[in-house]
Amino acid sequence: MAKYVAIRDIVQDKVPVGFLELAGWIRTHRQSKRVSFIELTDGSAVSNLQLVVDPQLSGYAEVAPKLSTGASIRVSGELVVSPAKGQKYEFQVKTLELLGEADPESYPLQKKGHSLEFLRENLHLRPRTATMGAVLRVRSAAAFAVHKYFTERGFFYLNTPIISTSDCEGAGEMFHVSTFDAENPPRVNGKIDYSQDFFKEPASLTVSGQLEGEICAMGLSKIYTFGPTFRAENSNTTRHLAEFWMIEPEMAFYELSDNIELAQDFVQDVIRQVMTASSSELEFLASQEWAQQGHIENLQKVAETAFTRMDYTDAIKILEASGKTFEYPVSWGIDLQSEHERFLTDEYVKGPVTVINYPKDIKAFYMRLNEDNKTVRAMDLLVPRLGEIIGGSQREERHDVLLAKIRAMGLDESAYWWYLELRKFGTVPHAGFGLGFERLLMYLTGLQNIRDVIAFPRFPGFAKF
Ligand code: 4AD
User: pTM for the complete prediction?
Assistant: First the structure.
């Protein structure tokens, strides 16, 4: 194990004062005749640690010109309680070694703040910035919170396949997986002959682990997945990624109302956990110029207040009665567009809202049909500014109804033989949902572009690094 102490542990008072060793990157270096100061970060905390250097320190004078922003160093010395205001500790350097310089003429990240756009073009250096450092630590804390939440409530963590031969959402927005020569695949009667391909049938990157999740929930009762998901939709927006992470719990013996309650409890618990574990990160992010006023207070409120529930049919009535002119006209049967969702959350409810019982024709084949024969037991959780962060439903567990639905939607029933078989043998009511992890992170951090809450975003035209 490396001997270097993390600055986070110092800031959190976990390290006694005294002799220790540190390693990190220089944020700033101020020199004077009597004493020099280096602000050091190791990316473990929002705060830097102030290093105090005696200019007479052996070897310092030679390396001092190279101790510029971004250079990496290793130091040993004494951690002491700081006599200066505004910081608890400082570090009196006894030895200093320059590990790697960062030429100020060419190092792109200088001391001044950089725009989020600029950082998106420098993904290889972005994790060194205070903003991305904070985001990635929040992301890590949120992932831990998700596992903690489900593990403590008797859910089992399930890994569903990344390569799949089924299209869960039935939307056909999939990236194909093949070992064929793309320029010259084998053909029979003009069509690509997949029987010669690696899997002997067309395969893709998964759009959701739900269907496999259902298989396992039918054995273990309560599971959740947390993995990468891929959508080849050409959505060049601030809310869509081509590769995103999704959390999908699936529960046997749950109905729609149980599912709604779980989704609320889960989101609120994760918010509370992250507010505790990453309070300094959230405060730092909330202090940025792009941040919304009152962001933290708002999170606190959302974590404590029950989410509004609304029938799709009522949502349509509210939108129709709003007197607003929407770009996409409102009528029963439409899929809610971002502008409609924003009206409901930002203006009408002024908080999160769970919209339920959507028309069957705009939702996936697996959702349970309601008695009215027109709507399905779907639920979408919409939040202010962002819109949908969760999509879920009670699943159709009746074999005959499901089969009729698959046929009516023109899906290939032979491809779903196993999904139908789950309904033949020991079928049970069950439900689940999918939370987009990056959407949750946007909500937590207040960042407005999904590309800023994942280290290496993938979107149309971009898959660098
Ligand atoms: O509503 P979706 O498509 O639902 C499913 O995939 C279901 N199989 C989930 C389930 O019931 N188990 O996606 C669920 C969530 C959305 O609410 C959104 O938060 C996120 O996944 N999401 C995306 N996030 C980023 N980029 C995209 N392109 C996304 N598409 C969906």
Answer: 0.96
